[in-house]
Amino acid sequence: MTLESLRKFCKKLPHVTEDVKWGNDLCFLIGGKMFAVASLDPTEGHAVAFKCTPEEFASLIEVEGIIPAPYMARNHWVLLERFDALRDAEIEAQVRKSYGLVKAKLTKRALMELEAPAKRGGAETRRRSTKKNKQSKAR
What we know:
This protein is α+β, with helices and mostly antiparallel strands. It contains five helices and six strands.
């Protein structure tokens, strides 16, 4: 797997956004919360970090090329130092699980906001319809 193929995979997941943080880290987010972080620094070999369950954390860090993610290991994040440490399908499965774990922790409001634009036409449409409702009630 390459950084570009990881990016394409992440962008296919629903409601994913990306942002570059800390100068050289490409972050993939759902509802404003990170579920995967890839290094853009070629000297680091394009490492990628992702969240996993406590059980998976214990087994993944036993794999050569995977270590506890610096600063994030206490929240069960691992750092894949090399893309060849896991097969492409395994990386995709782990990133998909990370996405699910992070999405499951979003507030109801955040989840509603993710779904709202697709269902109602976006925030601008909601604002206009609210103004119309207030005007018709005033009459």
